[in-house]
Design brief:
The complex is a heterodimer of chains A (about 300) and B (about 240).
Chain A (H helix, E strand, L loop, with lengths): L1 H6 E12 L2 E12 L3 E5 L6 H8 L7 E6 L10 H4 E4 L11 H12 L3 H10 L15 H13 L5 E5 L7 H16 L3 E6 L2 H4 L5 E6 L2 E7 H4 L3 E6 L3 H10 L3 E6 L2 E5 L3 H11 L5 E6 L2 H9 L13
Parallel strand pairs in A: 3-7, 3-8, 5-6, 6-7
Antiparallel strand pairs in A: 1-2, 1-4, 8-9, 10-12, 10-13, 11-12
Helix pairs in contact in A: 4-5, 5-6
Chain B lengths: L1 H12 L3 H23 L5 H8 L2 H21 L3 H5 L5 H36 L8 H29 L2 H22 L1 H4 L3 H9 L9 H25 L4
Helix pairs in contact in B: 1-6, 2-3, 2-4, 2-6, 3-7, 4-6, 4-7, 4-8, 4-10, 6-7, 6-11, 7-10, 7-11, 10-11
The chains are: A alpha/beta (about 300), B mainly alpha (about 240).
Amino acid sequence: MVGEERESAIRVVGLSKRYGATAAVDDLSFEVRAGAVTGFLGPNGAGKTTTLRILLGLARPTAGQAMIFGQPFAAIADPVRTVGAALEISGFHPGRSGRNHLRSLAVLAGLPFSRVEEVLKLVELTDAGDRRAGKYSMGMRQRLALAATLLGDPSLLVLDEPANGLDPQGIRWLRDFLRAMAADGRTVLISSHVLSEVAQTVDDVIVIHHGRLVDEGPVDRLSGPQRVSVRSPRLADLAAEIERAGAEVSHAENDVLVVSGLNAAQVGDLAFAAGLPLHELAPHAASLEEVFLELTTDPPTAHEPQAPA
Amino acid sequence: MSRVLSSELLKLRTTRTALGFAGVGVLLVLLVVLVGTLAGNPTTAIDKRQVLSIGDPLAAVLLLFGVVGATSEYRHRTVAAGALIVPSRLRLSIGRMVAYGLAGLGVGALMLIVSFAIGIPLLSGASGPSLTASDYAQAAGGSLLACGLGAMLGVGIGVLVANQVAAVIGTLVIVFVVDPVLLGVLPHVGKFLFGNALSAVAGRSTSHELAFGAAVAVILGWTALALALAGWVDSRRDIA
């Protein structure tokens, strides 16, 4: 049990949060592996931010518990050196400079001003440090929020939608930043509703919808079962052979079959054994985006108009 | 606690809010002292002392200063940044209260200098008895205390209400409408309201006012009540 707790940086058990009749989080349970970068995914309004706020002691759960390294946030002896969290890019006074914002937090945490300069350099805000934070661009605000999370050099980072409003350069910078954090051996929990922002960075994913867990696990597993596209001038004969082998076949285009249930090598061997020529053999997995949409798209209700076939 | 206090003092020094309130304070002091001496025709020692006791109008400004300072933490969502470092919100509120109390003393001292620098030469030409060292000490001590306590109480109100607009309007209504009305209609109740008690601490003297010591005790009671309620409410409040 103790060993399990060491492996889990975050453990959420039976967490619920209700606002009147609305359940923002509904009996949610999941774990975040220590040392992994985990994507906390779900569409807008899925309950991600509420969950993170409860995790960080900023909101009280209706039921359940959220633990960080085996204890609730409020019980952590030295929170700033344990958890760095960025929940709001507007979590600063617009009239205060970025440098002074970080200095006020450093003083609160008992850290020297030299640490402020280090994190400003890390997020490439040294030159803009004396400008009022209210004048910062969206990307600079995100970087200021990230700088605040790094002040105590914590082993766990909790980032809520850090890519919101970033331009492509900013997203690329964030991706490199997260990779550097992961390379340092930190645990990172990053929430997002835009899959492309995190798909290339995360090890694990947790997907929630309507406040409930819909899937969790390594990002590779979530990418879904592998399928194989195969092109042949004798498509009908090939389809029959594949179906005889117990796999499923569907026609994607006129001369292309999509095979589920066999990998590319098995399809190739089957065609060779039957003497059927192949012009193309390509394995591909469903994208994380496709799986995510499948998991988090509500079925149309009886009242909603159906898309034309 | 010293870290919380130091952080709050740094925050106070690094925005223009405190300077803005100090500017309003200077204008108010100039107005009160000039009108009090040139148009008020002070002839008794009490009248002259009240001209210099700028804590009466200034305490209300510093009360608002505390309210605005505390509620801006919620308005700009900086309260979460602090709570992620010091999870005890009560500790943060107490530190903020002490910091604003010290800032109130500082602003009060600055205003006293302005008040004395203008008022004493003007009053020296007025008829009637001259002010003694005791009068000056009473005017200065009462004004400073009213400024410090006003700012502290304002923080308590701000943390309790959290919404800046509601807290500012509510405080203005209490100080400028409820307090004077109640003091006129039910003076035995009205004198215990915080606006009237702050005036009594600052040295305003009317037949209904509390004695200085009692007024200080009443303000400390209001401040403790606001802190206790704010602590209770804030510990149950979800930070947005």
